[in-house]
Specification:
TIM Barrel, 14 helices, globular, binds iron/sulfur cluster
């Protein structure tokens, strides 16, 4: 870790993160996303390379250290993307990420498949890309391909993963948690389903999913928490203040596949929390259990997380339409410019708990305490007394992250180091509130 990467903590800030939606064009048809190709009601826009470069330069000048290119489907614009990745790393941004819905992996039976994917892997390997994700929605290949509207991609992904590994790129799987995670099960749509049964089915779903992606050859896996357009009751019972989420980004929907009641969300987060340790020795699992602990408390005990989201403080989102800077993908407010993360005035304390956008939620939970250690040590001590379990989990997560080389996609997994974190899956517990 470089010194400039930790200097924001001395100011009570986190290393800046910028998510750039390069385009809203997509060839996928996912029910959980408003950018699906069958949705004719949204404008299809692209930021443009020059505007993106200006934003990147700005972010680099202001001390941002993480940058994600998202879409739509980023690889529809591969030439632009490669140029922009080079531009960002050349400007000094170390953690540059992008990913794909996997459309390029269709047609794996064609004779040119291997050459095509080798060419793609070689192009990405020539950049300094830190994370390359491939989205998979279900442990059942047919279900995944039906949801994405991309037939044949799973077989292609299975053939592509070793090609990437041979080029020194270890792609991660991105799961958007949904009701078909473990395969299609109509019981998960039953409103009167017993909570214990719901919980059991989701534990099974996550176990199946992790086993499945491991069998495809993946070594890194992440889970995006469900993002529904629907408003939900706030922990304070102040729904008007919390409100629904705006469709700034568009990567959300009101489809039942992704819409869950608060009780269901609590059970899902608990199931994921329980299942992760059983697979930590086999794959690098990004999802931090300290963050899940906070989400379980939010939905099962109406408790606010100790570390609110840093969206609009240290993390920002740029939409593809007009290139406006937003606090995140779900709040309509805009900023004229990015703040200076290293030297800027002390920001107002973050206080937003409205959603679980994983890209912002997890790093806020994990790095928030470090910033607080320098800015408000007594406040940190109070939180330590209030929720010691959170800090125990955080320390374990950090040790695990180190054994995973902080999910650097250019490093092979260190299975010996990771094995220390493997645990047996605990038995189902009574999850009734
Ligand atoms: S989730 Fe990704 S692949 Fe699916 S419609 Fe949205 S942008 Fe496209
Ligand atoms: S919790 Fe974060 S991502 Fe969600 S609405 Fe608030 S600032 Fe945005």
């Amino acid at each position: 870790m470089r010194f400039q990467e930790i200097t924001p903590f001395f100011k009570g800030r986190l290393p800046g993160q910028l998510v750039i939606q390069y385009a809203s064009h997509c060839n996928g048809d996912c029910p959980q996303c408003g950018m699906r190709r069958s949705n004719s009601s949204i404008p299809r826009t692209r930021l443009g390379k020059e505007q993106a470069k200006r934003l990147i330069d700005d972010a680099a000048r202001h001390g941002f250290q993480a940058l994600s290119f998202t879409g739509g489907e980023p690889l529809l614009f591969l030439d632009d993307l490669v140029e922009l990745i080079d531009h960002a790393t050349g400007a000094g941004i170390r953690y540059v990420r992008t990913g794909t819905n996997g459309f390029l992996f269709a047609g794996s039976e064609r004779p040119d498949f291997e050459a095509r994917i080798t060419g793609l892997a070689a192009r990405l390997a020539a950049t300094k890309l830190y994370t390359f994700w491939i989205s998979i929605d279900s442990a059942d290949p047919e279900e995944h391909e039906r949801m994405r509207g991309l037939p044949g991609v799973i077989r292609g992904i299975e053939k592509a993963v070793p090609i990437f590994h041979a080029h020194g790129i270890y792609p991660s799987v991105n799961l958007g948690i949904n009701r078909h995670t473990g395969g299609r099960n109509p019981r998960l749509y039953e409103p009167a389903l017993d909570p214990q049964e719901f919980s059991h089915l989701f534990r099974q779903a996550f176990s199946r999913f992790y086993s499945f992606v491991h069998s495809l050859g993946f070594t890194i896996v992440n889970a995006c928490y469900p993002m529904s357009d629907e408003p939900f009751p706030s922990p304070e019972g102040n729904d008007a203040a919390q409100g629904g989420l705006a469709k700034v980004y568009g990567a959300s929907s009101d489809d039942l596949v992704i819409r869950f009641t608060p009780e269901e969300k609590g059970l899902i987060f608990q199931a994921l929390f329980d299942v992760i340790p059983a697979f930590r020795g086999a794959m690098r699992i990004f999802s931090p259990r300290c963050s899940l602990h906070s989400l379980i408390k939010k939905y099962r005990e109406n408790g606010l997380s100790l570390y609110p989201c840093r969206g609009g403080h240290d993390f920002f989102f740029v939409e593809a339409g007009q290139g406006k800077i937003h606090p995140c993908g779900y709040l309509p407010d805009t900023f004229a410019a990015l703040p200076d993360i290293r030297l800027g005035a002390k920001p107002a304390p973050p206080d937003c708990h409205r959603c679980e956008w994983e890209c912002f939620r997890d790093p806020s939970e994990m790095m928030g305490p470090l910033a607080e250690f320098f800015s408000h040590p007594f406040r940190l001590a109070g939180k330590l007394r209030r929720d010691p379990a959170f800090f125990r989990l955080l320390l374990e997560d950090l040790r695990y992250y180190r054994s995973c080389d902080f999910f650097d996609c250019r490093q092979p997994p260190n299975l010996t180091a990771m094995a220390r974190f493997a645990r047996l899956l605990p038995p189902d517990r009574d999850l009734r509130p």
